[in-house]
UniProtKB/TrEMBL annotation:
It comes from Phaseolus vulgaris. Residues 488-633 form the SET domain. Residues 79-129 are annotated as: Disordered. One of its GO terms (molecular function) is zinc ion binding. Residues 424-485 form the Pre-SET domain. Gene3D superfamilies: SET domain (2.170.270.10), SRA-YDG (2.30.280.10). This is Histone-lysine N-methyltransferase, H3 lysine-9 specific SUVH1.
Length: 664
């Protein structure tokens, strides 16, 4: 149960018999003894980590005892059994994001299909801890940092995407993956690729307020909220007489649409009592497990991390989780559920002085439903060229608009432009299907479908080969991701010190296509001339770009192809684009030394000729209203002369910890 507020449960303020509340021990007198839920599963128990790990394997408990009833009873009087492990839970947050039919298909095996997930290699050896090999020290496993949290989250999602890709290559229809996130989580846990294993009261180092997650399992691997199903995460402490528990984080999935909700207050409904769907709330909740921990926390007044579950607009069956910072329990009482059973209610208030997180989502929701916003200059700078309007905002100064340009959604090639040999697309008759090696486009991608069923890029590659206008497949083929326009509600806004910038009102999931770099393709020989003229809208694929790891770690899947992990690709041919006169939203994206967006060359056929495009994808999950940035790279001549000789470079204002000072 995760804080869904029953309509009939009226808070009974003052109904708690305060005289029965026991003396409160200061927190420092309580010694943490162990952190049950963050333990690694016993080594060697599961082959290759494909079985459920510890939190999933535990049996469910159903309360059977009879406890006193009555609205005037304080929550403490409900105390029944000592802590027995937080194993009961609902399936909330476990809605499968991909649920379509499962049929086998007799098609040629792709390279991927050689790796059978159904029959993992059975090994007598315990899983090897890869933490050290990928650069995670034992200390970093215990205590995270921003860098480590990002590293683990990227490793998680890269592995999850690859598992989706492998599954989808075996299935008839796209989107039929059975919880690739659980498999990815299980593998990372058993291989020691995780952080913040040490449970704590207060914030999880490296997880920032406002961070978003698309799976509960992502919060497990970074230690924000350890149980992957239960809404309450607890810390075991040594009390005066017996072991006790404190609540350290909760996942609240109170309905986002509830307008009356105070954004800084949560009424959280305790745990249990709704085990039987048909008989919801007919059973009284017990003061045990998570409820017992919340009860203790309501007396200790310790900080509790709150994660808000919000329905994902893109996928209504799934949720996006927002870390909303630290809260404290202000009040607790016993309410009545619809079916007549007693439920524990806890009122949590957000601690002051924290950056906004959930409130941003609420604002966006209001704006989307039509409420006015200050600073709106233009409702759509694309003039209808994009299917989703791109608004122009300035809340910073009086500048009314960027310098004039023509909005254009793709590339304009000069007439004489010819780069590759004439080329044909695929001859698929419907939509191209993962695993179908008869498809020429899939073959060009080394046999892998480059996108998952919901359009997320799986790996960075030297080139992603998409189906194009020349292909005979349906226009809705899933291999045309970068040609289908903007997917998010974007806006161009005036930044404080970096001119215009780009951001999205919608959360953006890692690997999601954002936009292409539109503009006029120019002769490479003219680049220096353009730069001298002060053209700030030149995209040049021949620059030197910071390297980063985005793809999955092949060793985690026992794949032995050392080349696969390298992401240092040479460009097959240079491409220079000027977006000064013609361009789209991409021309407004600023540089950052720690960007949240990266570019990927994408090729497809048009008029029987291959054309390369520059497509931008989310590097990690990006919360709403966050500025989108990518690495502008360094020109080769500047690079050769060294940083000190870099003329014409601009001072970088990205403010990231890794900022190298200049770019361009
Ligand atoms: Zn196709
Ligand atoms: Zn095809
Ligand atoms: Zn094709």
């Amino acid at each position: 149960m995760e804080g869904r507020i029953g309509k009939n449960s009226v808070p009974l303020h003052g109904s708690i018999d305060k005289s029965k509340i026991l003396d409160v021990k200061p927190l420092k007198s309580l010694i943490p003894i162990f952190s049950m839920s963050s333990q690694t599963p016993p080594l060697g128990q599961y082959p290759s980590g494909f079985s459920p790990f510890f939190p999933f394997g535990a049996p469910q408990q159903t309360p059977t005892e009879v406890t006193p009833n009555g609205a005037a009873t304080p929550i403490r009087a409900y105390r029944s059994t000592p802590w027995a492990g937080d194993t009961s839970s609902t399936m909330e947050g476990f809605s499968d994001q991909h649920t379509s039919g499962k049929k086998k298909r007799g098609s040629p095996k792709s390279r991927s299909a050689k790796l059978s997930l159904d029959k993992p290699k059975r090994s007598q050896e315990p899983p090897v801890d890869l933490g050290a090999l990928v650069g995670i020290s034992p200390a970093q496993k215990d205590d995270g940092s921003r860098e480590m949290v990002n590293f683990v989250l990227m490793a998680f999602d890269a592995l999850r995407r690859r598992l989706c890709q492998l599954e989808e290559a075996k299935e008839l229809s796209l989107g039929s993956v059975k919880r690739a996130d659980l498999k990815a989580c299980s593998i990372l846990m058993t291989r020691g690729i995780r952080t913040n294993m040490r449970k704590r009261v207060g914030s999880a180092p490296g997880v920032e307020i406002g961070d978003i997650f698309f799976f509960r399992t992502e919060m497990c691997v970074v230690g924000l909220h350890s149980p992957s199903m239960s809404g309450i995460d607890v810390l075991h402490i040594r009390g005066e007489f017996e072991e006790e528990t404190l609540a350290v984080s909760i996942v609240s999935s109170g309905e986002y649409d509830d307008d009356a909700e105070d954004i800084d207050v949560i009424t959280y409904t305790g745990h249990g009592g709704n085990f039987f769907k048909k008989d919801k709330h007919a059973i009284d909740q017990k003061l045990q497990r998570g409820n017992l921990a919340l009860d203790r926390s309501s007396r200790e007044l310790n900080e509790i991390r709150v994660i808000r579950g919000i329905r994902d607009a893109v996928n209504p069956n799934a949720k996006v989780y927002v870390y909303d910072g630290l809260y404290k329990i202000e009040d607790s009482w016993i309410g009545k559920a619809k079916g007549g059973g007693d439920v524990f209610k806890y009122k949590l208030a957000r601690m002051s002085g924290q950056p906004s997180a959930y409130s941003v989502w609420k604002s966006v929701q209001k704006w989307k439903s039509g409420s006015s916003r200050t600073g709106l200059i233009l409702a759509d700078i694309s003039n209808g060229a994009e299917s989703i309007p791109v608004a122009l905002f300035n809340e910073v100064d009086n500048v009314k608009a960027p310098i004039y340009f023509n909005y254009f959604h793709s590339l304009r090639h000069p007439k004489s432009f010819s780069l590759m040999q004439p080329s044909n697309g695929c001859t698929c008759t419907k939509a191209c299907v993962p695993g179908d090696l008869n498809c020429a486009c899939i073959r060009r991608n080394e046999g892998d479908f480059p996108y998952t069923g919901n359009g997320v890029l799986v790996n960075r590659m030297q080139l992603v080969h998409e189906c194009g206008p020349t292909c005979q497949c349906f226009p809705n083929c899933k291999n045309r991701v970068s040609q289908t326009g903007l997917k998010h509600q974007m806006e161009v806004f005036k930044t404080k010190d970096r001119g215009w910038g780009l951001r999205s009102l919608d959360p953006i999931r890692a690997g999601t296509f954002i936009c292409e770099y539109a503009g006029e393709v120019v002769d490479r020989a003219k680049v220096s001339e353009l730069v001298r003229e002060g053209n700030e809208y030149v995209f040049d694929t021949t620059r030197i770009y910071g390297q980063f790891k985005w793809n999955y770690e092949p060793r985690l899947l026992e794949e032995v192809n050392p080349n696969e992990s390298s992401e240092d690709y040479a460009m097959p041919y240079p491409l220079v684009i000027s977006a000064k006169s013609f361009g789209n939203v991409a021309r407004f994206m600023n540089h950052s030394c720690s960007p949240n967006v990266f570019w990927q060359p994408v090729v497809y056929e048009e008029n029987n000729q291959s054309y390369m495009h520059v497509a931008f994808f989310a590097l990690r999950h990006i919360p709403p209203m966050t500025e989108l940035t990518y690495d502008y790279g360094v020109s080769r001549s500047d690079h050769a002369e060294g940083i000190s000789a870099a003329k014409g470079r601009k001072k970088c204002l990205c403010q990231s910890l890794k900022c190298c000072g200049f770019y361009g």
